[in-house]
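*** Backbone structure tokens ***
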Amino acid sequence: MASIIGRISAFLKSPQGRRYGDQAKRMASDPRNRQRAQDVLRRFRGKR
């Protein structure tokens, strides 16, 4: 399990990982995308 976390953290430190991280931050700051994510989580949690 620790190797998976290590590989993820190494990827996030790479240029490509930083690019994806920046893209995710931009998408998360958009109110419409935030609302969509909340709706998906609400539906997922409601089915349990």
